[in-house]
């Protein structure tokens, strides 16, 4: 199904005539290959599943009843980080059509739902840093202005611990199993079978926050390396492969016998990768038991021990890796952006938003999922950083069930309109220059991992960061932090009134 979508998107891009109103996939199929439709008579129930146009089966109808909201205003409370302006929520509300595809799609989506249910959408985005305090003030005073809050994960945790968010599994009209809600988010972020945060096609910010591997294709050529897509295809895209490629791709450009930002460094990196790589390699910072309750177990696995040593050795190898956090005075991510742009960096494992930011880059680049650790690891696991945006319903909402109703309507419409628009932007000729990247983007977006640690800050992140970045002994560092982490887990469960 994903492959078919990819092919369709590739066709759309090649034709370069993407219009939002004409994106009926079934029409595309019928137009281009009439034989296909003739060849699938309706005589055999279920036979369509075996045949080519499976993608046309995807329904964007949430099956909601007819409803008239009487023209009432439905307000989203979203984040507006002035310090990290790139992480501002921009896929919820917009004023009008401006000729930019994501903006215009958001407008169109809201317009359709607004008409259908006689409701007016509005957005309030507090200035930097005051999301939690302003949301708290509203909830505590019983102010029903806000129907949905869209916090990043850490702020969701702060609101959750104060008891301000509704368990969305209790709400009418919300089908959390629908494909416009990310099933990985539901599985990873539920706690005691309750769920307070939703991620999905409604907001593209979590796509931006998803980790991937950026590949400088010019350097792949220059060093005579195989493109990572070849390894992905053969299921050999793992840490060994990645390291081997890196070993041939650092160059002491200024010939001073040392490796730093004046050179070409194979693996551009950042502090976040201390934990992101562990997740990439198949783990969660905090696991969950059979009752969906969190527990900490990183200290009990020898495999985790050796993975952490491996990541640490690699990230601290000056020849192979350059961590922009060690070059604050040179601009942090702006330094690695520049290096990547100037063909002084082969790979960069980072968030998808870097892909969008690099749209003006002259050099060809591509993306791949973050590599697996080894052949033992079954699935890719691309972490979604906490800076994204999650749909939550505050207990102060005018009607939590109405919040759920409109969230469901908007999310389904986002699946239909906003997701293809995001693919178009992320993979447009201007941004990503090779068609394999479409397939790669599917692998990135459809293999995500969300971390409860990002919601509650139990302490596992800082322990792992210390191990990887400072080269501390994993066993003793994890053992030293275990008691505190467990205490924090118990505290969170008691805040949420969940019995162990
Ligand atoms: Ca040098």
Mind explaining what this structure looks like?
By secondary structure, the chain is of the alpha/beta class. It folds into 2 domains: 73-207 and 386-448, Periplasmic binding protein-like II (D-Maltodextrin-Binding Protein, domain 2); 211-383 and 458-495, Periplasmic binding protein-like II (D-Maltodextrin-Binding Protein, domain 2, 3-Layer(aba) Sandwich), CATH 3.40.190. It has helices spanning 2-15, 25-32, 34-38, 101-117, 131-140, 153-161, 183-189, 205-208, 217-222, 228-233, 239-247, 273-280, 302-315, 333-341, 353-357, 400-427, 436-445, 452-456, 460-470, 474-495; strands at residues 72-78, 119-124, 146-150, 211-216, 265-269, 287-288, 294-295, 321-323, 345-351, 365-368, 382-383, 448-449. α4 (101-117) links the parallel β1 and β2. α4 runs antiparallel to α16 (400-427) and α13 crosses α19. The two termini are 40 Å apart. Calcium ion (CA) is lined by residues 252, 254, 256, 258-260, 262-263. Residues 252, 254, 256, 258-260, 262-263 line the site of calcium ion.
What's the quick description here?
The chain has 500 residues and is α/β, with parallel strands linked by helices. Helices cover 41% and strands 10% of the residues. It has two domains: 73-207 and 386-448, Periplasmic binding protein-like II (D-Maltodextrin-Binding Protein, domain 2, 3-Layer(aba) Sandwich); 211-383 and 458-495, Periplasmic binding protein-like II (D-Maltodextrin-Binding Protein, domain 2).
